[in-house]
Specification:
heterodimer; A: alpha/beta; Rossmann fold; 3 domains; four-stranded parallel β-sheet; B: alpha/beta; about 45% helix
């Protein structure tokens, strides 16, 4: 199905159907690299699972960042309380971008037992109207959690019904957690709402007074303007790095969707090119922008690590005939970086590392760590889809020995088992994902935090600098491990880490 | 306050509170029968709201969870739950397992009681509680877990032990200072010769919980949290309970000790001796502060914003111990009329004679309107008596309010995003000293 067809439906498709993405698989890097196209068509199930997240959480990370937006959760009152931590990103993100520290505005219709029985639509209607009057926002994103999904509340119908009564644009966003096990569907859910409700076709936007000189200038600018996608996986410091690299190719950058206003989103429909920083995040929307507005895109490499950043720059440069400029830029950047990394390399040489994160991020970061002199001994990817094939190939090509790949939506019990066997010298994990390794006494570092630099050449240097700091004194975790225990039975460590995966 | 939504809810759902409560019990393993995202939502919530405390022995993303999907919604989830429990018992090391339902499994009507009782018949230490998120807040989830434990886990007919009391009412993770606060109340009770079972403190054990029916009295340091559980305990084990406000600082601690003394028929002369000695100690610590308290003119007007435990307790401390003027006290919980009445009663007849305006308001951004309505910020005349110098004692969501009225601020009630909390507590006499330190440190931070 073409992407534009998907956008005609109220709900976005789930990724297990659209991309055949999977979350339960144990393999090795060479195994996955060899399997080639569509390597997994049938996902497994686990007979034991630990809690993880659902699509609501990453979706809210994006929605909470939007200025002048009110997030109205339509669910039981707990859904969306994750915003208490995301609010730190909203405050800091606002501060570094606009010098303004402001809390996000999130509300909950707090469906109770009565609503579950009699339906929550009337409450939602009134909530939208009151939110519009109280906060005067540009947009109200109505986000559905599990409960409306089960009791059958029609948030799109409610939005349509009350839209004439409110000043804000209402965007219904579908995040019914039980409907998909691939939480990366979150990005599709948000983009689906943006695409259906905020973007206008070019002919809808005619200037009141014609200004030929002005519109000519604007046209030339747009020919050099690129969309840079950030779904909240990068902080401002990383955006600045990529802007710097793109500017040096003579390009202007329109960053969205995080921290962007509706106008910036509309601007995206007129850009010369969309640039992804991660196929896991962006494929759905970039295909849509291409099909509906004719904006071409590049979506292949993640600019994490030296080689991958170079590949990412080259992909962009080719589209603008800037190949030579790109080669000069890359050569200069690499030379400067290499010299700066020299002081850290001796401490890294030959140390083993285990990496855990969203698939693309984990694989690109593993490559970066190899470039710094670490030896990768295992990777846990939160899910797997065909976009990552190239990354497994890159890693398999340079792997001294084959190593384990755990496809798991977190599942720290598998990780505890693996880590107790492998005992790496270093572990890099996602937020809320370093605790297992830390309690085992392994030095740890967070693989994603919007306050820290990870991306581009600056990111390589800053990661190296931070790892060097961690490894110079890793005693904190070592002491933790002496006094704390993980909650797993002794027998579990003797079993195969993948013994609870039932293949489909 | 809106009747259609809650702004930035300062709580999780009942499942979230229940899961945190189980995590806080020594050696306990929560088993969520819920959608996959519930556990992560809670972990992110504690990360941002609970003074940097996430999980424990088995919390955060470590908790077993059946992660029900559309298949279970259509066909029912009890098979999946049975499989999950069976494998949990093999993989996880725990002394007690507590099955907790979420919205999805409760709406589809999974009968967890029969699944759980099947395992209990096999001799597994396992309990179930129906904690679907739409039932209420995390505070209520705490109550629901305690009810289940008191009904199905605490042993019946245990011979009574003289001087043993159970203590609850402080909700783990929702009160970031739970560990320190429990410790503070425990010390108070021990000072008058009692033995305390507090279930969640670092030194508590499963055995203490299991034998809780040996207590003489259940002391609930809350007018709201854990009250239904206290009723359950009374019904099942015949032990009465005494609800008392969270004792923060010397005045509240004096009253707390006297009430417990009277209720248990303890020799009051001993208690009075303890009160004299504790107060004398407290004021010896304050002694060297006297110059600066006066020279820097540290008395303040104040706004207190907090949950049902903190709002009255902090207002009382400010009014009766610190000698401040907490003109507005905002309780951000959703409460019934009788609960509101109980909290109001706690703030009537304060020792200082000071009277605070107690307001029930869930939405933080409305606090400024409550303040302005009682005390206009501007006046069109040369001489004006504004709400200044002021202090805001609330959650980290009150930072905008504090900035707006130009007042320093301290986060005490949930969410506390901007402090690290380990064993700090504000209960008891020493808790009053901690709180005085923290408040005054915020006042003089720019000095």
């Amino acid at each position: 199905m073409s992407t534009i067809e998907y956008f005609k439906h109220k709900d976005p498709p789930k990724r297990e159907e659209r991309l055949k993405a999977c979350i339960a698989h144990g393999d090795t890097v060479c195994g996955l690299a060899r399997k080639g196209k569509g390597c997994l068509t049938q996902d497994g199930e686990r007979s034991f699972t630990q809690g993880s997240i659902c699509l609501l959480l990453p979706a809210l990370a994006m929605l909470n960042s939007l200025p002048d937006n009110v997030v109205l959760l339509h669910s039981a009152l707990g859904c969306g309380s994750c915003t208490h931590s995301q609010n730190a990103n909203v405050r800091m993100g606002g501060n570094v971008r606009w010098g303004r520290v402001k809390d996000g505005v999130w509300l909950s219709t707090a469906l109770d037992e009565t609503d579950v029985i009699s339906g929550g639509e009337p409450k939602l209607e009134q909530a939208i109207i009151e939110a519009d009057r109280r906060y005067r926002p540009r947009t109200i994103t109505v986000v559905a959690g599990c409960v409306p999904g089960i009791i059958g509340d029609d948030i799109d119908g409610v939005a349509q019904k009350v839209q004439p009564q409110v000043a804000a644009r209402i965007l219904p966003v579908h995040c019914e957690g039980f409907k998909t096990k691939i939480w990366a569907t979150a990005y599709d859910a948000v983009f689906h709402a943006v695409g259906r409700n905020l973007l206008e076709d070019p002919e809808e936007r005619q200037p009141v007074l014609p200004d030929e000189e002005g519109s000519g200038r604007e046209k030339i600018r747009l020919q050099r303007t690129v969309n840079l996608m950030n779904v909240s996986s990068m902080g401002r410091v990383d955006e600045v790095e990529l802007e710097r690299l793109l500017n040096s190719l003579g390009l202007e950058v329109n960053i969205f969707p995080v921290f962007s206003r509706p106008d910036d989103m509309v601007k995206a429909t007129r850009a010369a090119l969309s640039i992804s920083t991660c196929p896991t995040h962006d494929d759905y929307f970039l295909s849509y922008l291409h099909e509906r507005f004719g904006v071409p895109f590049v979506l292949k490499h993640m600019p994490i690590g030296i080689n991958n950043t170079g590949l990412w720059i080259r992909d962009v440069a080719t589209r603008f005939g800037q190949e030579e400029a790109a080669e000069r830029l890359i050569a200069a950047e690499e030379a400067e970086l290499e010299e700066a990394l020299a002081e850290f390399r001796p401490l890294f040489a030959g140390k083993t590392v285990f990496v855990s994160a969203g698939e693309f991020r984990a694989l690109a970061t593993a490559k970066l760590l190899e470039e710094l002199g670490f030896r990768v001994v295992g990777i846990r990817s939160f899910h797997h889809d065909a976009y990552a094939e190239g990354e497994y190939e890159k890693l398999a090509a340079t792997a001294g020995e084959d190593y384990v790949i755990d496809i798991a939506n977190v599942q720290p019990f598998e990780e505890a088992n693996l880590l107790s066997r492998i005992r790496p010298d270093l572990f890099l994990g996602h937020a809320n994902g370093n605790m297992t390794a830390a309690k085992l006494g392994i030095p740890t570092h967070v693989i994603y935090n919007t306050g820290l630099a990870y991306i581009g050449y600056r990111g390589v240097y800053e990661i190296a600098r931070r790892l060097h700091r961690q490894l110079r004194n890793p005693i904190y975790n070592r002491k933790l491990s002496r006094h704390l225990q993980l909650p797993y039975s002794d027998e579990w460590y003797g079993e195969s880490p993948f013994s609870h995966i039932k293949t489909g | 306050m809106s009747s259609h939504f809650i702004e930035r809810p300062r709580y999780v759902c009942s499942l979230g509170g229940a899961a945190a409560t189980v995590t806080a019990l020594p050696g306990a393993i929560p088993i969520l029968h819920a959608a996959s995202g519930c556990a992560g939502n809670f972990a992110w919530t504690w990360n941002g709201g609970s003074g940097l405390q996430v999980g424990g022995y088995c919390g955060s993303l470590t908790v077993p969870s059946s992660n029900v999907q559309e298949h279970e919604v259509v066909f029912g989830g009890t098979d999946r739950l049975t499989e999950e429990i069976r494998n949990t018992l093999r993989i996880m090391k725990g002394e007690l397992f507590v099955v907790l339902t979420g919205c999805v499994t409760e709406v589809i009507g999974d009968d967890i009681r029969s699944v759980v009782s099947g395992f209990r018949e096999e001799g597994v230490a396992i309990v179930g509680a129906e904690t679907g998120g739409f039932k209420g807040t995390s505070y209520y989830g705490y109550d629901l877990v305690l009810q289940a434990l008191f009904r199905d886990y605490v042993e019946k007919g245990t011979p009574p032990v003289n001087g043993l009391v159970n203590l609850w009412g402080i909700v783990p993770y929702m009160d970031q200072f739970w560990r320190g606060n429990i410790e503070g109340v425990r010390k108070l009770l021990e000072s008058i010769g009692l033995t305390v079972n507090s279930f969640f403190a670092t030194d508590d054990t499963q055995a203490g919980l299991k034998n809780a029916a040996a207590a003489e009295l259940n002391i609930v340091v809350s007018d709201v949290y854990g009250i239904e559980a206290a009723e359950t305990f009374r019904e099942v084990h015949g032990i009465p309970y005494l609800p008392l406000p969270l004792p923060v600082g010397p005045s509240a601690s004096d009253a707390f000790l006297r009430e417990v003394t009277e209720r248990l028929g303890i020799d009051p002369t001993r208690t009075e001796a303890v009160i004299v000695s504790e107060n004398s100690r407290y004021y010896r610590y304050l002694e060297p502060l006297t110059d600066c308290y006066n020279d820097l003119d540290l008395q303040r007007y104040a706004v207190v914003v907090g949950d049902a435990n903190y709002a009255p307790a902090l207002a009382r401390f400010l009014a009766d111990d610190l000698g401040w003027l907490p003109e507005l006290t905002v309780c951000t919980d959703q409460l019934g009329e009788d609960e509101k009445e109980r909290l109001g009663g706690r703030l009537r007849a304060l020792e200082s004679g000071f009277s605070t305006n107690l307001v029930f308001e869930t939405d933080g951004s409305e606090v400024i309107n409550h303040l302005n309505s009682s005390r206009p910020r501007y006046a069109d005349r040369k001489y004006h008596n504004p709400f200044s110098p002021a202090f805001v004692l609330g959650s980290s969501l009150e930072r905008e309010l504090a900035q707006g009225i130009g007042a320093p601020h301290l986060s005490v009630s949930f969410p506390v995003a901007n402090r690290a909390v380990l064993d700090r507590g504000y209960t008891g006499y020493s808790g009053g000293l901690r709180l005085t330190e923290d408040i005054l440190s915020a006042v003089v931070a720019a000095r």
